[in-house]
Structures are given as structure tokens and as C-alpha cells.
Amino acid sequence: MTNRWYLLFASFFILFISSCGSEYQRLEERELESGKVVKELFFGLELGMDQKQFFEICWARNKEGILINGPSELSVEHSLVFPSGNPGKMRFYPEFEDGKIYLMPVEFSYDGWSPWNEDLKVEALREDVVKLFEKWYGEGFIEVTSEDKSQIAFVKMDGNRRVRVFKKTISSVRAEIVDLPIQKKLSQKPE
Fold first, then answer.
1. Under a CB-based contact definition with an 8 Å cutoff, are residues 81 and 58 in contact?
2. CB burial string 172-191: b at 16+ within 10 A, e below
3. Where are the domains of the chain?
4. How confident is the model at residue 1 (pLDDT cuts 50, 70, 90)?
5. CA angle 120-106-21, nearest 5°?
6. Is the pLDDT of residue 11 over 70?
7. Could you report how far apart the first and last alpha carbons of the chain are, in Å?
8. Average pLDDT for residues 153-160, to the nearest whole number?
9. SS3 79
10. 126 vs 134: CA distance, rounded Å
């Protein structure tokens, strides 16, 4: 994932934050001030894990039949059944800072998606991903919407860990799980 795409989305997210009032700001401030550190991602992976540990865990989950190589050079894939009962794919590969995971971008899609299948539209997928994440990370996702309602994200924070879910394309949903203090520090670095 290029930094340019990431910065573009970060700009859109800042617009979300400013247009949704202060609910998100209060949530972020409260969670960051709590001092709580949450590292859990999924499948035994964690924020702060080094590259060697990441590859070892992925290799172990591959041997167990849980993870496989994804369709691109830098992706790991997991087949799953969403809370709706629809089968799909989850693809991910972390971003590292100082050799440690600080951001886990994840893309979700339904198997069998087509533009004419209303049951598998991206809004249903986004809802499925939020329900899946509520099982994994607990309830508490809030909707953050741009002023014109064209961009919608669902966000949950637990201490340092922020999880957000949003529509990426007409057939995919992206989630980003980030160690927010590290991301904020990186955004302040001159390029």
C-alpha cells in the first residue's frame, strides 16, 4: 500500500471526524488518555509484533489450513463465512514501523459478488464486517459520516487500538486496525 493512498484516505477520515461532530473526538481522547494498550489483531497476530514473528505465525496458521498466500505478492488470505452466512475472503498484510506492526489493513469481499446481486452489495458486506468485528473486538462501533453523507466509516477504539471499517470499492470493504499513537507520530514526521 502506497503512502500516497494512505495519506489520501487519512485526509478523507479527517473530514469524517470534523463533520460528525465531536463524538469521535471524545472517544479518541478518552481512549488515548486511558493509557490502556491493546495489541490483539486476529489469528494470534498483534500490533507491535516484529516481521519474523508475523511470518512465523502466518506459516503456523498456513500449516493448520487457516491462512494461505493471497493473490498478490504481499497478501495473506483467509476464507470465512460472515455472520450473514455468506462466504467470503479476508486479505491482509501489515505495515511496519521500526520493524514492528503498527497498521493492519484488511480487505474483505464476498465470494460470488456481482453487480446485479443485491444480497451481496457492498453495504451488506460492510455490515457483515462490522458484525464480525463486534464478535472479535466487542461492541461499540460508531458511525462517522462526511457532511454530504458520501463517505461512511464505522470506528471503534480500545486504548491505543483504533479499528475502522469503510467501503473501498463497489465490491470490497477495507478495515484498518492501527496503533493510533504510532500513526499520529508518523503523520507528524516530515517526508
1. no
2. bbbbbbbbbebbeeeeeeee
3. 3-187
4. very low
5. 85
6. no
7. 17
8. 95
9. strand
10. 12
Task: Map residue 48 onto helix, strand or coil.
Answer: coil
The rounded distance, in Å, linking the Cα atoms of 164 and 137 is 12
Q: Render pLDDT for 55-111 as a digit per residue (tens, 0 to 9).
A: 999 999 999 999 999 988 789 999 999 999 999 999 999 999 999 999 999 999 999
Rounded to whole angstroms, how far apart are CA atoms 129 and 123?
10
Q: Where do runs of H (alpha helix) occur along 47-100?
A: 51-63
Burial, 120: exposed, middle or buried (Cβ in 10 Å; 0-12, 13-18, 19+)?
buried
List alpha helices for 48-164, DSSP H. Answer: 51-63, 122-137
Rounded to 5 degrees, φ, ψ at 157 are -125, 140
For the entire predicted model, the pTM comes to 0.85
Class of residue 90 by CB neighbours under 10 A (exposed 0-12, middle 13-18, buried 19+) = buried
What residues form DSSP beta bridges with 167? Answer: 173
Which amino acid type is present at position 41? L
- The answer to whether residues 48 and 179 touch, using CB atoms and an 8 Å cutoff, is yes
Angstrom distance (rounded) from CA 48 to CA 39: 7
* pLDDT score of 191: 63
| pLDDT value at 38 more than 60 | yes
Helices (H) and strands (E) in the chain — how many of each?
5, 9
The answer to whether the beta carbons of residues 160 and 38 sit under 8 Å apart is: yes
